[in-house]
Amino acid sequence: MPSKWVTEDVLIAITGLRPGTIKRARENCWLQGREYLLFSPVNDPKPNSEAMYNREAIDKWIESQAQHQPGAAERKKLNLTSLTTNGDDACQNQRIRPE
């Protein structure tokens, strides 16, 4: 198991994220100090220093994407409606019934 803070190459290997996705997330979503840190061997990181990534925080960010999937709210509403109207599970309409 990799350590909590990993390089971009390790992050790509363990998450499957692409370099462009990582770059956009770092610029638009992730917080410095939470999902990534800039580091320097002489304790003086610059804006162009190498980044280390918190794989645990990024895993949580990936998991949070589930609630933002296209159609997720509609599917949730449909499943809840199906459960309350017929008392059966939400997959009932997809079952094959014998003729």
Task: Explain the layout of strands and helices.
Layout: E1 5-6, H1 8-15, H2 19-28, E2 36-39, E3 50-54, H3 55-64, H4 72-86
Antiparallel strand pairs: 1-3, 2-3
Can you offer a commentary on this structure?
Helix content is 43%, strand content 11%. The chain is built from 4 helices and 3 strands; from the N terminus they run βααββαα. The protein has a 3-stranded antiparallel sheet. The relative contact order is 0.12. Mean pLDDT is 82; it is low at 86-99.
Count of alpha/pi helices: 4
Rg of Cα set: 21 Å
Adjacency order of strands in the biggest sheet: 1-3-2
CATH superfamily of the largest domain: Putative excisionased domain DUF1233
Q: What is the 3D shape?
A: elongated
CATH topology of the largest domain: Multidrug-efflux Transporter Regulator, Chain: A, Domain 2
Uncertain regions spanning at least 5 consecutive residues: 86-99
Question: Which architecture of the largest domain does the CATH hierarchy give at level 2?
Answer: Orthogonal Bundle
Derived from helix and strand composition plus strand pairing, the structural class reads alpha+beta
Q: Give the strand content.
A: 5-15%
Question: How is this structure best summarized?
Answer:
With 99 residues, the chain is an alpha+beta fold. The protein folds into two domains: 1-68, Putative excisionased domain DUF1233 (Multidrug-efflux Transporter Regulator, Chain: A, Domain 2, Orthogonal Bundle); 69-99, no CATH class. The chain has four helices and three strands.
Task: Give descriptors for this structure.
99 residues; alpha+beta; Multidrug-efflux Transporter Regulator, Chain: A, Domain 2; 43% helix; disordered C terminus; three-stranded antiparallel sheet
